[in-house]
Amino acid sequence: MNIYDIAEKSGVSIATVSRVLNDSPNVRAATRERVLEVIRAEGYTPNAFARGLGLGSMRMVGILCTSVRDPFYAQAVGHVEEHFRRNGLNAILRCTGPTTEEKKQALEYMTQKNVDAIVLIGSIFCEDEDNSHIAAAAQQVPIIIINGHIDLPGVYCVTSDERKAVCDLVEALFRRHKKRILFLHDIMTYSCQQKIAGYRDGCALFDEPVDDALIVPVERNLDAVNDCIKRLLVQGVSFDAVVGAEDILALGAQKSLHRIGLNMPIIGFNNSTLARCATPELTSIDNGLEQMCTIALGVLDTLLEKKEASRHTVVPAKLVERDSFRAN
Amino acid sequence: MNIYDIAEKSGVSIATVSRVLNDSPNVRAATRERVLEVIRAEGYTPNAFARGLGLGSMRMVGILCTSVRDPFYAQAVGHVEEHFRRNGLNAILRCTGPTTEEKKQALEYMTQKNVDAIVLIGSIFCEDEDNSHIAAAAQQVPIIIINGHIDLPGVYCVTSDERKAVCDLVEALFRRHKKRILFLHDIMTYSCQQKIAGYRDGCALFDEPVDDALIVPVERNLDAVNDCIKRLLVQGVSFDAVVGAEDILALGAQKSLHRIGLNMPIIGFNNSTLARCATPELTSIDNGLEQMCTIALGVLDTLLEKKEASRHTVVPAKLVERDSFRAN
DNA sequence: TAATGGTTTGTAAGTGCTTACATTTGTGTA
DNA sequence: TACACAAATGTAAGCACTTACAAACCATTA
User: Fold this and answer.
1) Nearest chain B Cα to A43, which residue?
2) What is the extent of the structural domain holding B148?
3) In B 37-56, which Cβ lie closer than 7 Å to strand C?
4) What is the pTM of this model?
């Protein structure tokens, strides 16, 4: 069943059928009706590949992220997919895992599939890595990074002002005489770099030297955080507040410290479902994911219309105070 | 840049280039090398649409789910996508939202895009709805349902024995003289139906009549659950244990009851990250999502090789006991 | 009535690949 | 050296659509 069958059965040429299929205005209403009738009756659907060949696009957009299993990314993927869907585009999802090799492959795959654009969710690529493959891909197709940054032509970034948010937070804690703030993080993404920069900014405001022993990498799961906290205490590393680069890290610390009987302000990041589910409820910095997505998708729309767009947009991040902030 | 260019530059015909591209054994090693050299030098990648046209497949699989934002589905999507990727297939993701109309459209879209298979995650379609569109789609392409069931030719289902798990749970609670078990659920999916059936089974074991006032629908967010619990108590509906059809429902109940000062066994479903993040940690029935995915994907592989596979597989679900179970 | 110009339709040439079949090349044997 | 046969390569016909351009149609207007 192809366009020739439909053309024959409705007594027109394939060009006319194609026009009907593509909502061309140059078809007489009566003709259009007749063709549509046959299409309905035969249950015909045009072949997507042939269409892609002819039009040079299958109206698909690639989404890359390190893992959809992470609720934060899942949230973003959900946003992005939904927006695309509403705009008649569809999403090819490809998760990458953490290695550069996988990321490279994923990007290559997407360009091979002739997607109309690529959205990178989360800072899966870092400014300081070798990004020649991104540069190459960006020449073929617009690339949008949500919550990450790489300064390359053809690459459009939307980030959150996490640096300022952390700086403000540190300032607030300092004012409460919490001067030994433990900062837990996992992979050193762009976003993470910004947070640490904010931490240092905050300390600098008060001319306090930064104790690097308080900036601690740890795997993003409760057990790892628990072990980490215990180890720090055994090692005699003292602290009087905790900031986690992800809610799960902060939550792990909160659980661990409560078990030990210690009480102090604890702040997470991303304001995920987890934050409200915790007991006591977790204070968290909301990096405005939804807003970032909206802006990113706006940029994408602009680019798809072949217009120019701003290469880097920053949205504000803000503290959402809950019980865990007020502890002493 | 197309296959003709490569053919010309390497002094062979397009057929030979195509053979090199498709790893055909009928190419002399020296010729293959020469062609590959040109391909590398020119940075050529074959056009995916043209390939799809010729081969009748772009090696893509559709994933449908109601929402990736839900961590449970995100988990499943992650599994499925990863498996595909390892097998050289890629995923088109499409979320549907709850309405039948959207689900229908999503299915139609997928068949139009000529995917090699469709995976439905979660019981987004119910046995008792009008499933003619699924039947139609299943004639064109294999459909796999993970954690849902529809008895139709061409539709392959993998479910979890949630019915038995709930029945066992009810039995265990009854033995502890908890006979008024509140069951909270949201959308009435196949999975949810099974859970309720298990609830009834358990009551039947003890010849206890089921009080339908204890089977309560509620939106899946903390506030809604909190309101619901308070409303029930005000209405004088008494209960001495809570089972949530999702962890978030159980967790909402737990928080609500703790606030009020009530203490009772609380059990959730899916054994999500949430369960371990709760305080006290939430007991949860693990429906073996990972195992379901693995089996489903095995079935899919079998089908893609044009072999026959079992139409319905059931994996066991099991209770993961944590603190919230032992309360009184 | 014929010329004009706009609308509708058709023809045919892409789009870039796969693959059946024909042809050429190469190898080993008599 | 000629022959048979297999391996390597090429030719050309798909695959199902889009679209530039040409042709036909129709309603005005002079």
Assistant:
1) B136
2) 60-160+289-317
3) 46-47, 50-51, 53-55
4) 0.91
